[in-house]
Amino acid sequence: MKYAIVLGDGMADEPIEALGGKTPLAYAETPNLDQLSKKSEIGMVHTIPEGMKPGSDTANLSVLGYDPKRYYSGRSPLEALSIGVPMKDTDIALRCNIVTLSEENVPFEQQVIIDHSSSEISTEDCAVLLKAVADELENEEFHFYVGTSYRHCLIWDQGRVIELTQPHDVLGQVIGQYLPTEEKFRRMMKRSYEILVDHPLNQERKKQGKNPANCCWFWGAGTRPALDSFEEKTGKRGMMVSAVDLLKGIATGAGMGVAKVEGANGGLDTNYEGKVAAAVKALTKDGYDFAYIHVEAPDEMGHQGSVEKKVKAIHYLDTRVIGPLTEQLRAAGEDFRLLVLPDHPTPIRVRTHTSDSVPYLLYDSTAEKNKTWDYNEETGRASGLLIARGHELIDRLFEK
Fold this sequence. Notes:
alpha/beta; 15 helices; 2 domains
């Protein structure tokens, strides 16, 4: 038996008037999920433990079977693992987003945060901008590391965990009240804006109609993580397929394999087909028992507040991941169990994460069910099945 999870990051949502009162998941054209749902168990799962912030870090730990209450030490340290940062026990890692501020003729504190991803800037462009910042601000205490797209890392030597605001939680708002209380970080953020606002690359981006990547935003502080081996915990050899450093870092910390997929960028135009090919190869040729295919696009489109693009992201997940994955596993003669779910909702209404339970679909090619339902939030709630402790859901996948 082979096992797979297809994780549509932030895919769950609320009913939207423009979609006739349906959620994007219920509205999107998903022929493969529609077919699978009739043969599958559908329920709800609560991935965010009580009292913890809803994030892809805590939620994906849950989905992979790691109780965040026990294993979570901060978001950025997990990403640092993926980047290959040699963290010391006394280091603090922080996420360094390169965001878009409004560039109004007002004091820095009165700028408005427009875009947490700077129009999904490429890693190559962002590396140029981060170098400009690091050339001036890096010292014995602070070191910058390039990640993927707008997502980068700052290591604070002999630092401490401090409370910082996630940029995607405050989109469209004046930044003053959300800046760090730690003065050195406020100064670095302000100086990064002064360095980047007139950078030639940003001037060119604006000519192209793209948002300028004009400020570093620090958040997600944490200490060096310590995850138990996934294989020792589950008895399954696992492969992670994701464009996002957070997921790669979780996998690295858990001793899983990490696939390298050319063109996988975490955006709407990511290499879906390459992700499927990597997962199928891991399962059918490389001796892996389990593949985790993470698709970031629904979450990014939720943060952007784009109903149309979120619907398209879900359609792509269905037609370019779910369909080819199941077809290729069947063609290879493999029995398989497939779990499909979001990690958390990212509702268009709020453009950030919420802690609500999410719907899951569990399919077993050797024990198909006979149902009339479709996979969406309403069906999940109506099923009456709720996994209250998200980290226990993977046991349901591996129960046979």
